[in-house]
Design brief:
mainly alpha; globular
């Protein structure tokens, strides 16, 4: 693969997504944080600071997920539906470079989105005089971005061989299941049924373990995970993205246009 061509695709995707007003989510996040700071102290008199910290990180994750799913599932599918894929495959850009470039471009957009929301989050906390553990929050925000990059890979994979609607539903399904894989394993053990246990273990091995990237509780209580664990989880996410993109490239390469 040619790095220059990949970066060209990534740059085009970056500006295209920016022009699609995806960054309006930043304004929505700021409004949500402002409302939380105003309303939560009236509902929770003693734990309002912890709740505000958690709400901010949760909103960052959810808004980022919405942006990721709706953009990622349409990155390739939109090219197919509009027939612009004919122009792309006719150029010297290979299909593998197209997939990798699109993921890289979307990941850059998500980095800007998460960084902007983190800055707003910290600014509102500071203006509201709410104490916060800076290091833990920054690490949690970074792992929100890791999770979104992984979900971008899932969305692109489904978008390669299915309609935008189906790809969107499947991607949201993977997200929900990915946060429940450990519970599924525990549930399988409770059934005492070997067949169900194997099924649940199989789902755990196939689906991404997204709980690895959920550090909100650590951030709220100012806990910093061990560096070795952070590196392991980040490497897990990277390997999973490589696997997803490899499958997407293999499927896309076999499609006839």
């Amino acid at each position: 693969m040619n790095l220059r061509r990949i970066l060209t695709v990534a740059t085009n995707v970056f500006w295209e997504v920016i022009r699609d007003r995806i960054l309006y989510l930043i304004i929505i996040f700021a409004l949500l944080m402002g409302a939380s700071v105003r309303l939560i102290p009236e509902l929770a008199a003693t734990t309002e600071k912890k709740i505000i910290l958690d709400v901010g990180l949760a909103a960052m994750s959810i808004l980022g997920l919405i942006a990721t799913v709706f953009v990622a599932t349409g990155l390739v599918n939109k090219e197919i539906e509009k027939r612009t894929v004919y122009l792309l495959v006719a150029k010297p850009i290979s299909r593998a470079e197209l997939i990798v470039g699109k993921h890289l471009g979307l990941s850059a957009v998500l980095a800007v989105l998460v960084a902007a929301m983190t800055v707003i989050y910290l600014a509102i906390l500071s203006l509201s005089r709410i104490p916060f553990p800076l290091e833990s929050i920054l690490i949690a925000s970074l792992f929100v971005w890791f999770e979104l990059c992984l979900m971008a890979g899932v969305g692109i994979l489904f978008g390669v061989f299915s309609s935008s609607l189906l790809a969107t539903l499947l991607t949201f399904g993977v997200y929900l299941m990915g946060h429940s894989t450990r519970d599924l394993v525990a549930l399988g053990k409770l059934t005492k049924n070997p067949g169900i246990e194997q099924l649940m273990m199989g789902l755990y091995l196939v689906l991404p373990d997204l709980a690895r990237f959920n550090l909100r509780n650590d951030a709220v209580y100012g806990q910093v995970p061990y560096l070795a664990g952070l590196i392991t989880d980040a490497a897990y996410g990277l390997l999973y993205v490589v696997l997803l993109l490899s499958i997407a490239i293999a499927i896309f390469s076999r499609r006839e246009f």
